[in-house]
Amino acid sequence: METLPQIRAKNSYILLLSFLLITVLSSSISATSPLSQSDQGTEQHATSPEQDKSHVHEVHCSRERSRAAWKVIEEYLLPFVEKEKYELPRQCRLHPSNDIFRDQEEHKIHLDVNEWRCGYCKKSFRAEKFLDQHFDNRHSNLLDVDHSKCLADVCGALHCDLVMEFKSKKTKCNPAAAARNRHLCEGLADKCFPANQDPSATRLHELFLRQFCDAHTCSGGRKPFSRGGKKHTNRFYLAASVLTLMLLPLFYLIVYLYQREMKRGTQELKRITKVGRKAKPS
pLDDT by residue (tens digit) across 76-117? Predict the structure, then answer.
C-alpha cells in the first residue's frame, strides 16, 4: 500500500507532466497558426524598412480608386458586354490589361472576414489594407509600371465616388468638372465601342452613353447606372433558406419523439387505470 509521501510525489509528477504537455501543445498551435503575430499586417519579419525600399517601385496611381473603377466596370458594364459577346479592344482603357493593379488584385485570396492571403507568397493578413501594403512593399516589382495604365484616371468618367466605401460629403456640382468628365466619358465610348463597327459595338456605344455619360451634368436629369447592373443573389435569403433546410429535419424529429412519448405515456396511464380499477361485485 502506498504511503502518503509516495501519493504526493506521484500527484506532483502527474501535474508536472500535464503542465509540460500543455506548454508543448500551446507552442505548436501558435507556431502553425495562419495568422501569427508576424503576419497580422506587418512586414518586420520579412525585411527591414531599408531592405523594403529597395523593392519599392514608385507608382503614381491610386490603388483604391483603380479598385473602385474596376468595381464599376465589373458591376455596370461587363454584364452587357458579355451578353453581346463583345470583346473589348486592347486599346480601350477599360480593358483588364490596362489596369496596373489587375494582376495583384487577382492574386488576393479572401478566406474569411479577417483573413486575406497573398497569392504570390501565401502570407496571411487580417485586413485587405495590410495585404495592399504587402503588395507595395514586397511585390511592387511585378507591376507593369506604365502611366497610361492607371485605371484611376478614368474614375471621373465612371462615377467611382458612388461605389467607394468612404465617400466624401456631397459638394456643389462644378459645371467645368462635369463637362470634363463627360468629354472623357464620350472618348471612352468612342474608343471602346466604335460606332457603326458592328451591331454589338453600336448597341454598347449607345448603352455606355446612357449608363455613364448622360449623368455628367449639373442640371439633374439622368442618374448614373440607369440601365442597372449585375444581378446579385440575396445573401440573407440564401442563408435563411439553407438554415431552414438544416433545421426542418430536426423539427420533424422533435415532433416525432414528442408524439411517441405522448403515446407511451397514454398507454402507461391506461395500464395503471386497469390495474387500479376495482372488480365489480357479482
Answer: 999 999 999 999 999 999 999 999 999 999 999 999 999 999
- 73 alpha carbon, distance to own chain's centre: 17
Report yes or no: 44 and 36 within 8 Å, Cβ to Cβ.
Answer: no
Q: Which whole number is the average pLDDT over 31-59?
A: 46
List the grid coordinates of 119. Answer: 497569392
CA dist 135 → 45, 129, 140, 172, 263 (Å):
15, 10, 6, 36, 67
What integer is the mean pLDDT of 158-168?
79
Alpha-helical (H) ranges within the chain are 4-32, 49-55, 63-76, 78-83, 102-106, 128-138, 155-158, 175-192, 199-211, 235-276
278 has pLDDT over 90: no
- Under 8 Å between Cβ of 105 and 71: no
Question: Side by side, which strands form the sheet with 124-125?
Answer: 108-112, 115-118, 124-125
Nearest 10 degrees: CA dihedral of 82, 65, 191, 89? -50
- The answer, as to whether pTM is greater than 0.85, is no
The pLDDT value given to residue 262:
73
Phi, psi of 173 (to 5 degrees): -65, 135
CB atoms within 10 A of CB 228: 11
Q: Which residues of 55-79 are buried (b: 16+ CB within 10 A; e: fewer)?
A: eeeebebbbbbbbbbbebbeebbbe
Task: Tell me if 118 sits within 8 A of 142, measured CB to CB.
Answer: no
